[in-house]
């Protein structure tokens, strides 16, 4: 899928939100490793990222060429500072109405409205792709993310008390949320 939007952040500076393409592979891997180092609320540890720049580029181009999946990057002064995306949950008929949402913004840029803008961009794309339900899970302690999702209209539909097992903090409860599109 394709997306292209310029937004003004809370500090008055512009950010460019657009779908990532093959040539973004290296910078997206760099951003992934940074954001996944900065928080314990995401699934993957940086050392578990198995994709190199070339593989990431191919993965991103597949999304750009797809008609129901996308990875959107937020660029500030030409630098990738956040990513968000939607992935199909399945290709079988009974699952085709559902997509999964994921997001991360580099810590230096938190609180500037990028999370909200990226979430809204993904919701727009999910509607355009024809999905009926957008889903996510969030660590229960991640109040900021949960507040962002609630503002966007997501509602909780369950919890898994031992959803993640962090090597730093032990078990993390996961909150399952869904948004009807
Ligand atoms: C969660 C995350 C995506 C939010 O991104 P962001 O760019 O900081 O988001 P925004 O600036 O748009 O703020 C979104 C909302 O968070 C809340 N928020 C912002 N700063 C906050 C703070 N310091 N304390 C509590 N809530 C806060 C507000 O409700 C805000 O909405 P508002 O601007 O309408 O008041 C970002 O913190 C992040 O990437 N965290 C690490 C990775 C992660 O947790 N991803 C989600 C996994 S489920």
Notable characteristics:
181 residues; alpha+beta; Aminopeptidase; 8 strands
Question: What does this protein look like?
Answer:
With about 180 residues, the chain is α+β, with helices and mostly antiparallel strands. It has one domain: Gcn5-related N-acetyltransferase (GNAT) (Aminopeptidase, 3-Layer(aba) Sandwich), CATH 3.40.630.30. The chain is about 30% helix and about 35% strand. It has 4 helices and 8 strands. The chain has an 8-stranded mixed β-sheet with strand order 1-2-3-4-5-6-8-7, with helices on both faces. β1 and β2 (about 15-20) form a beta hairpin. The longest helix has 15 residues, at about 115-130. The protein starts with a strand and ends with a strand. The model has no long low-confidence stretch (mean pLDDT about 100). The structure holds coenzyme A. Coenzyme A binds near residues 105, 111, 142, 143 and 148.
